[in-house]
Amino acid sequence: MKAGIAWLLRLHGRSRALRVAAAYREMLSVENALGRLILSDLAHYCRAGQSSFVAGDPHQTAFNEGARDVFLHIAEMSGIVPMDFTGLVEEVIDER
User: Fold this and answer.
1) Mean pLDDT of the region 75-88
2) Which of 16, 60, 66, 87 could be disulfide-bonded to 54 (CB atoms 3.0-4.6 Å)?
3) Is the CB of residue 9 less than 8 Å from the CB of residue 63?
4) CA atoms within 13 A on the CB side of 87
5) In this structure, are residues 3 and 76 in contact, taking their beta carbons and an 8 Å threshold?
6) What is the per-residue pLDDT across 19-46, written as a single tens digit (0 to 9) for each?
7) What angle do CA 15, 18, 21 make, to 5 degrees?
8) Residue 94 pLDDT more than 80?
């Protein structure tokens, strides 16, 4: 069982956990244009395709890792795989 689903089950119980997981997949799907736009923004902001490490700055590293962890949770719940991260980040950059 994936960590995000296990966390939801512990927090909410089976019925609500399944509804929450389904809501993530419906609202933040890469097939949904608005969901993909949000995911692209989050992937870029949370440094999904980059290392969170900042040499000599453990506080910034921890902050970056926290943001990346949130994105990874959203991605897992939305059914997004790591191979999609680079494409999502590139979409944000291409629109500038």
Assistant:
1) 84
2) 60
3) no
4) 7
5) yes
6) 999 999 999 988 888 998 999 999 889 9
7) 150
8) no
Encoding tokens for residue 25?
Answer: 């997949």
| Residue 5 near residue 17, CB atoms below 8 Å | yes
Contact 17, 8 (CB under 8 A): yes
**What residue type is assigned to position 45 of the chain?**
Y
What is the reported pTM?
Answer: 0.82
Count of other CB atoms within 10 angstroms of residue 2:
10
DSSP 8-state class, residue 1: -
Label each residue of 24-72 as H, E or C: HHHHCCCCCHHHHHHHHHHHHHCCCCCCCCCCCCHHHHHHHHHHHHHHH
Q: Are 28 and 78 in contact (CB under 8 A)?
A: yes
Quote the CA–CA distance of 52 and 27 in Å, as a whole number: 27
Helix axes 58-78, 14-27, angle to 10 degrees: 100
Q: Can you say whether residue 13 is alpha, beta or left, with left for phi > 0 and alpha for psi between -120 and 50 degrees?
A: left
